[in-house]
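Researcher: Please predict.
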Amino acid sequence: MRTYTAVIERDSEAGLFVGFVPGWPGAHSQGSTPAELEANLGEVIAMLLEDGEPDLCAQIVGVQTIRVA
């Protein structure tokens, strides 16, 4: 079993959760709940893995809060 880290955002206008794997073109999906997003993203990743293991060109290193006056 492989493990990948996804970035998850909530699109308040569409009411959807959107997720993507940084550095992996095409590894993105959406769902109306976090569980649905996880299932959908898992399906996309499984499909992409049929073409071979990705060479991820980016990784998550952290999240920061930036204050602007």
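Model: The beta strands are 7-11, 16-20, 28-31.
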